[in-house]
Structure formats: structure tokens, C-alpha cells
């Protein structure tokens, strides 16, 4: 029988840093009450998953505890947002005239925030986690898994699975993306569907008939 698995990638709920449009990487900010209220609205779109993973930062941990009260979940620093270094808690307005910032925005793969994390390192740790997740799903015949993380890692994982550009699927705090995969033997999976998890009445949905992604490969 062909195996099908649903993976729910959830971005943590709203924080004060999100509200202020700050760069929040490893700064450990809690959820706002507004963020908690929005998460409650999407709970019925997420099943009682077989596996639950979360970034180890408090905004993701609180999101996991709210969505899955009483459930055990695994936390991982691999799911953290990029470390913005000296630009932590700064806004675009704070940085827009800084040459190093403009260079980083233009080519984040070639430039790094002062005392921050290289983009290539973020990609490697996120992709290592994703391979671990897919191996675990394969080994234990998991039918559904949830990954609670941050905007950057979420986009990286969805982009890698779907083979689409990084900004194809917009995800705001307290929202997510459901990816449905069909086993193609071993560690290979074909994409069946990508759909939004949002409190909004209307959202995008993309069936996988036009996009197939084989997850076996080097990273």
C-alpha cells in the first residue's frame, strides 16, 4: 500500500517583536495574548499528530503547549530562527541606511549580520533536521507530524520539499503550511498537496500534480 504522510509546519504565535516588525532571531520572547488567541483559531486544522517537534525558543514552546496541551514534544535548537547578531531587535527603519545591512538583504548567501549566523549554516542545520524527520517518518510509519518553528526555517523546509522559491508560500505568525507526501520507496517521497493553515476564511491551495519532489539527494 502506498504510504501517505501529512506534515504540518507551524510558525509560532505573535510576539512583541513581530508586532514591532523587529528582527527577532535567538532573542527569547514569549507569545502575546493576541498571538495565543490566533493560535486557538487554527487548532481544529491540526490533528493529534504522531510526532511533534518544536524549536527550543520559548515562543515556539508556548505555541506547542497551547496547540497540544499535555502532549510530549521534542525540542531542537536546529529549528531556531537565524541569529541576527548585532541586528537583533532592530527594524528595517533602524538599518535601512547601513551599507552592510543593504548588502545582506540583497545577497544573504554572501553576507552575514555582524556577530550573527551565516545563512549557509542555517540552511545546513534546517535541512539536517528535515532529513531526520523524513527518516523517522519512514522508519516508524508515521501518518502525521507537526513542526513548530520560525519564519525562516519554515520557508527553507517548505521550499526544499516543494522545489519552489523561498517566498512562494507566505506564512504569518500563528499560521502554517500542510504538506501531503506520498511514499515512492525508501527515502523518496512525491508531493501531493500544499495547503495553508490559517484563521482566514479563504486561503491558497496547491495540488501536487504539477510539482513532484524526490527527497533523496545530497545536501
* Through-space gap between termini: 29 Å
Strand content: 15-25%
| Count of structural domains | 1
For the largest beta-sheet, the strand count, sense and barrel status come to: 7 strands, mixed
Total beta strand runs: 7
Radius of gyration from the alpha-carbon trace, in angstroms: 17 Å
CATH topology, by name, is Rossmann fold
Name of the CATH superfamily: Phosphoglycerate mutase-like
What spatial form do the alpha-carbon principal axes imply? globular
Q: What is the CATH architecture assignment?
A: 3-Layer(aba) Sandwich
* Protein structure class: alpha/beta
Q: Mean of the pLDDT scores?
A: 91
H/E series: EHHEHEHHHEHEEE
Poorly predicted parts: 209-219
Tally of helical runs:
7
Secondary structure: helix percent: 25-40%
CATH class wording? Alpha Beta
Order of strands side by side in the largest beta sheet? 3-2-4-1-5-6-7
Amino acid at each position: 500500500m502506498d504510504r501517505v504522510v501529512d506534515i504540518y509546519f507551524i510558525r509560532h504565535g505573535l510576539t512583541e517583536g513581530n508586532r514591532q516588525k523587529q528582527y527577532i532571531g535567538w532573542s527569547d520572547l514569549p507569545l502575546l495574548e493576541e498571538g495565543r488567541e490566533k493560535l486557538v483559531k487554527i487548532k481544529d486544522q491540526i490533528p493529534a499528530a504522531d510526532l511533534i517537534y518544536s524549536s527550543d525558543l520559548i515562543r515556539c514552546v508556548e505555541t506547542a503547549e497551547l496547540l497540544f496541551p499535555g502532549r510530549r514534544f521534542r525540542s531542537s535548537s536546529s529549528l531556531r530562527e537565524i541569529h541576527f547578531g548585532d541586528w537583533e531587535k532592530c527594524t528595517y527603519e533602524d538599518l535601512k541606511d547601513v551599507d552592510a545591512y543593504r548588502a545582506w538583504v540583497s545577497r544573504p548567501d554572501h553576507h552575514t549580520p555582524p556577530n550573527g549566523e551565516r545563512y549557509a549554516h542555517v540552511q545546513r542545520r534546517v535541512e539536517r533536521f528535515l532529513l531526520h524527520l523524513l527518516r523517522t517518518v519512514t522508519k516508524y510509519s508515521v501518518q502525521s507530524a507537526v513542526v513548530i518553528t520560525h519564519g525562516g526555517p519554515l520557508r527553507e523546509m517548505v521550499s526544499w520539499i516543494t522545489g519552489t522559491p523561498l517566498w512562494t508560500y507566505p506564512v504569518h505568525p500563528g499560521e502554517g503550511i500542510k504538506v501531503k507526501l506520498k511514499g515512492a520507496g525508501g527515502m523518496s517521497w512525491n508531493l501531493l498537496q500544499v495547503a495553508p493553515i490559517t484563521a482566514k476564511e479563504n486561503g491558497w491551495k496547491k495540488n501536487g500534480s504539477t510539482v513532484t519532489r524526490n527527497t533523496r539527494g545530497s545536501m
